[in-house]
Amino acid sequence: MNVIGIKELQTNPGKLSKSFAEDEYMLITRRGKPIGVALPFGSHLMEQGLQPWMAIKAFQSGDLSLGQLAASLDKTKSETLAMLGQLNIPIADYDLSEDLETINTLLD
Description:
Elements: E1 2-5, H1 6-11, H2 14-21, E2 26-30, E3 33-38, H3 44-60, H4 66-73, H5 77-86, H6 96-107
Parallel strand pairs: 1-2
Antiparallel strand pairs: 2-3
Helix pairs in contact: 3-4, 4-5
């Protein structure tokens, strides 16, 4: 594992590229404390668990639909819904207060 400080990464980003070219991951630190990990896409770690995590994060941010998430996880939509429920991840970003305001406006 390679370790690089955030300031060094800013001044010498080529170290990150070199690490990726060697199929190694890099621990990024700030003042000696870990703040992140940079991984090459071909890494074994990506295939073993980070890829599903990244897909779920993409779903949460709205970059993937439920169907796309299910396909990337090789699950049915029902299985994906059940998994999201177990992880307490909402399947819809819905603001009920907006609808209540609209209803109150219409009733007035």
